Amino acid sequence: MFITDSVSAPRAARVGLATLLIAVAWLAACADAEPSQQQPDDAIWDVVQVDSEARWLPILATQDLAVGVKRIAFSLDGIDAVDAPPTVRVSLFALNEDASTPRTVQFARFIPYDPQITIAAHGHANATVSDRALPISRGVYVVPVQLTAPGLWGVLLEMQSDDGAAESARIRFTVRERQAAPAVGDLAPSVRSRTREDVGQLRELTSDPEPEPGLYTMSIDDALETGAPLLIAFATPAFCHSRTCAPVLDAVKVVWRSYAPALQAIHVEVFENPHEPQRLVETQAFIDWRLPSEPWVFVIDREGVIRYAFEGAVTEVELRSAVEWVIQDGE
Q: What is the pTM of this model?
């Protein structure tokens, strides 16, 4: 059984984690380099060892990348607890087509997290997505991108702090033709999810310390039959390694309260037994939706079609905009 706890890993362990990611996506960081000196070419996209002296260690947080409009998320390990996070300019490259000319250049937006959010000590009775989740530090950076073809892509991150420190880093990743999770334009999988009627108390249904009872009244398959827009959040607030589940679920609660009863909403806990933290087992609805990470939030229209899909961090503003579009589109 794999046991985890809420204690942050030391610096060396975090660098080791990033090194493990080279099998699926690689990272190179160059300390104290001026952003203007970083001219991309084929050679510097080769796999190299992470610079252990770098002030910031970028870690890609988005795992399910496929052709289409996506939100790439990444964290910077090493951000000081009190200083403002550095600004990050992101250049996107389609490496199979042109490794020297960026497709787009834009600044990433930083979404901070409550430092009091922790991970409860827990274990897993099976191999889980949560075991593979990446740690997020003070927050996460997000940037929208258009991925036009499958293959190798890369981002150049140019980071600069208020005190004048500057570094650059490159992340190379693979884009698939289709993502593993249900995508925008797909019919939402009509599966049964557990409700309040299936348990004696809410703590058997969710790891949320302050659950909203209204998010557990209806199963996914029943909600899809109502013909109303639907908001679904797959999240595990107490056991989320990225620490993004709690703020995401809080945003879902606020948005749902603003639009109910015109909007249905469901929270699906990633684990079927959150009250037994030493032997967590993934819930069947989470498995049936083929989600490779957590959290995920989906906005579904009256016809049962997924119109928005958010992996990882999503803000209340983004979610409210998506819900308003779906509600108004059907009126």
A: 0.76
